[in-house]
Amino acid sequence: MSMTIGFTSVTPQEFDRAIGDSEWADELIGSDEKIEQEPNGYLDKSWAGLEYLMHKAEVGFEFLFTGEDITDDGTLFGWSPELVRQTAEELRSVPFGRLAAHYDGPAMQVAEVYPLAWDDDGNALDYVEFYYAQMVAFFEAAAASGAGAIMSFSF
After folding, report:
1. CA 125 to CA 128: how far, in whole Å?
2. What gap in Å lies between CA 131 and CA 99, rounded to an integer?
């Protein structure tokens, strides 16, 4: 099984309910309406590569230690509307070129950055860039609407 991360935008009311009701939150993010929502906040397995590049570029961003725990098993995290807004602002100031400057496939392999598929031919960098653009678009749209988010981590 692979480890993936995805974000689902939620209204402030949905955010508040999700924090107190993990079963409801899980059902909400699995609903057809939320699955089909655009822009899509699904990051696939790119999250660890993105986090590695952000760390190297000295961007303070961590997926797994941000937000409020919704579940005891570490699979759902609530990102408040304020945290979504702050994240959108931070991402807006970080063009992908700043991250790409730190891409080193062999070093990422040695560092065991998940999913251990980093190469030098540019395919892996393109993969990370695609999901970075998707993440930026997601946070921009969520922040513009005053939404919070639920981050799901599957492993």
Report:
1. 5
2. 13
pLDDT by 10s per residue, the chain, length 155: 689 999 999 999 999 999 999 999 999 999 998 988 899 999 999 999 999 999 999 998 888 778 999 998 989 999 999 999 999 999 999 999 999 999 999 999 999 999 989 987 779 999 999 999 999 999 999 999 999 999 999 98
User: Is residue 18 classed as helix, strand or coil in its secondary structure?
Assistant: helix
Domain ranges of the chain: 4-154
- Architecture category of domain 4-154 in CATH: 3-Layer(aba) Sandwich (3.40)
Distance from C-alpha of 42 to C-alpha of 54, rounded to nearest angstrom: 18
Contact yes or no for 80/68 (Cβ under 8 A): yes
Bridge partners of 69, per DSSP, are 77
Q: Please state whether the predicted TM-score (pTM) of the whole model is above 0.85.
A: yes
